[in-house]
Amino acid sequence: MMIPMFFTCARIFIAPFLFQAISHHAWNQALLLFFVGSITDYLDGFFARYLQQESSFGAALDPIADKIFLITALYALSLQVSYIPYEVVVAMIAKELVLIFGALVVLYSIPGFTIKPLWHAKVITACQCAAFFIMIFAQMQLVSIWQSVLVLS
Hints:
- The structure is a single chain.
- The relative contact order is 0.14.
- The protein is mainly α.
- The model has no long low-confidence stretch (mean pLDDT 84).
- The radius of gyration is 16 Å and the shape is globular.
- Helix content is 80%, strand content 0%.
């Protein structure tokens, strides 16, 4: 297995353990798992470019791994904290599913089409990760809940 693909698959593998940690209020474990999962998002792209192991499969799987990881974190957190409205969770999951299925339709209907990450998608993912870190920190009582809400709004 190529190194970048290892990091992408690791992010998918970590997701259920992150869900379990958040569900059981194991905030230190959740923070560690979320940190490791977030770092793998950076490392897979870095090693793909550095080792020249970029592939169309990896380019397609990476955003799916991101979505699985972040949706898992969002859903788990929404079950544990009261300041994430159910409607926000449903809207974010629906948006991500539309993006995934839309990309797959385009990918398989246009011969030679390749998926390339856009810089603003990376910024959005980084902002989502930062918001989740703050929410986990809030549960650990390292920051106030109001600081978390302000970041999300």
